[in-house]
Design brief:
This protein is mainly alpha-helical and 93 residues long. The longest helix is centred in the C-terminal third of the chain and has 31 residues, at 62-92. The chain has helices at 17-23, 45-54, 62-92, and strands at residues 27-31, 36-40.
Length: 93
């Protein structure tokens, strides 16, 4: 799903029904040096965190969890970078 969004004179962006149906209507807006990232706001962040916590094996040490979190963050960032590169290629056409 790639589309071009345009700001109106008041700075508003319409992202479309398909995106809001899938991700909700509230987003954290993260302004980066060359892009704006929208991150959906969780309806119940504590419940989501508790559910994630149940999936963690009990034998893992805190150091293992920190290393895993760091590795996953790098993977996610690299995946986001690749998606942005693809979007930039699409928008140049």
């Amino acid at each position: 799903m790639a589309e071009v969004a345009v700001c109106d004179e008041r700075g508003r962006i319409t992202i479309g029904k398909e995106a809001t149906d899938k991700l909700g209507r509230k987003f954290h807006v993260v302004v980066m040096p060359r892009e704006i990232v929208l991150i959906p706001v969780s309806k119940n962040p504590l419940k989501e965190l508790a559910e994630l916590g149940k999936k963690i094996p009990k034998h893992l040490k805190l150091e293992d969890l920190k290393k895993f979190a760091e590795e996953e963050a790098v993977k996610e960032a690299m995946g986001n970078l690749e998606r942005l590169k693809k979007l930039k290629k699409i928008s140049r056409r």
